[in-house]
Amino acid sequence: MRPEHTTPTTMPGYADTTRIDDLRASDYRHLDQAGQVYLDYTGAGVAAQAQVRAHHDRLLAGLYGNPHSENPTSEASGASVDSARRAVLDFFRADPSEYAVVFTPNASGACRLVGEAYDFGRTAPFALTWDNHNSVNGIREYARAARAPVRYVPLAGPELRVAESDLVRVLTAGRESRPGRWGRPARRGLFAYPAQSNFSGVQHPLSWVELAHRHGYDVLLDAAAFAPTNRLDLSVVRPEFVCLSWYKLFGYPTGVGALLARRDALARLRRPWFSGGTIRAVSVQGDWHRPMDDESAFEDGTLNFLSIPDVEFGLRWLDSIGVDLVHTRVGLLTEWLLARLTTLRHRSGQPLAQVYGPVTGEGRGGTVTFNFRHPDGTLVDERLVAREAAAAGFLLRTGCFCNPGAGEEAFAINQGSLRRRLLARVDSIDQYLDALRLPTGGAVRVSFGLVSNASDAQRFLAFAESTYLDRDATTGSPLPPRLRC
After folding, report:
1. Could you tell me whether strands 279-283 and 288-291 are parallel, antiparallel, or unpaired per DSSP bridges?
2. What is the bridge-based pairing of β-strands 189-194 and 217-222?
3. pLDDT tens digit string along 76-120?
4. Which one is catalytic: 111, 400, 402, 485?
5. Which contiguous run of DSSP H or E holds residue 214?
6. Does residue 477 sit within a domain?
7. Catalytic residue check, 400
8. CATH number at residue 333
9. pTM of the entire structure?
């Protein structure tokens, strides 16, 4: 972006995205009614009035019952759920003969399904990047319980990216020296990574899916932060598993996510338990059960049959707007904010902000994470920013964003520090920071999404300048406890 673009609206291509402004005025009026600025799209999308009306009208137009039956209300629910499955596959351009849709409570639930049922073992390791949400990090506990190696791929450099050479080193580790039993090839492993970091906005290459396949790995792709503003085409990129939360794409409904799984990979999963809705038959006295042989074997209990149809409406809504249009708008706002934020200086010459991750729009999404700095170079406590931003009407997020690996690299926390005996005795984030001698426990995250506009970005920049530029380190009042990671 060139310096002469003093507002986002003067950037080339911005005028082509004005349909988003029309939609904001017609279907997202509630965003502006209280004078607030919503900047947490990576945390959750915003629902359109049309989505809420569609839900209301559908429920009042007919009766829907528990789909685990054969009466008309159950059949109506089952038909709606099946229609939503087809809509999901259509949206991601996935072949129904190759991919199945498992509805879950959220992306975390999708990760758990894979972790608990994957065939980990001594020759079937779990590989993952440092840059991962905790719902992916948690899969390592299943792997370790199966005595499988757990191997992390580190981040490298200030942009918080992964060097492909490091990825290849991890994917090839132990593969040549550990053949399977009786000389057979080693079992598969699972490689997990985010298509877009929820911490830094870095977009990791989708080509890694095929790279991992060449080294004998299945792939779990976390698309929760990527899919809201980027096209994921499963006819081109074909991971075994994709996890999603629908409220991150279009705000509503919450409590519904999905695991998109290749059918051959789904068939290899072995669940450690069963529940209502996942079995064809079961006997107490005979001590046996037969699981369902399709995706319903992974959908525990009664599905959220009143909200799953809202997923189909949301996908149609987003498709009608155009994912590519949203991608362009978000990219322009992100570039503009980064360019302005990284050039602001205190009179002392110190930068106003330290950005974690890429400082340009290349290879990144609309998540911008940073800390403000005082004129003497010290960091402004993110809790103070959270409090002052909220008071000024800015709805953003602070903390570590459930992504400890990216945070540790951003804050230069090394392995030696993390192994200190003192850390074993801490029971709060503040004690943890004191033990590591860190000045801050997190960062500030601003993220753009579906109906972000130029005013959102400009108003936040004006707030940053007026509140923190050339302001000394005096805070004036006690700070609240930090949120847990």
Report:
1. antiparallel
2. parallel
3. 999 999 999 999 999 999 999 999 999 999 999 999 999 999 999
4. 402
5. helix 208-214
6. no
7. no
8. 3.90.1150.10
9. 0.91
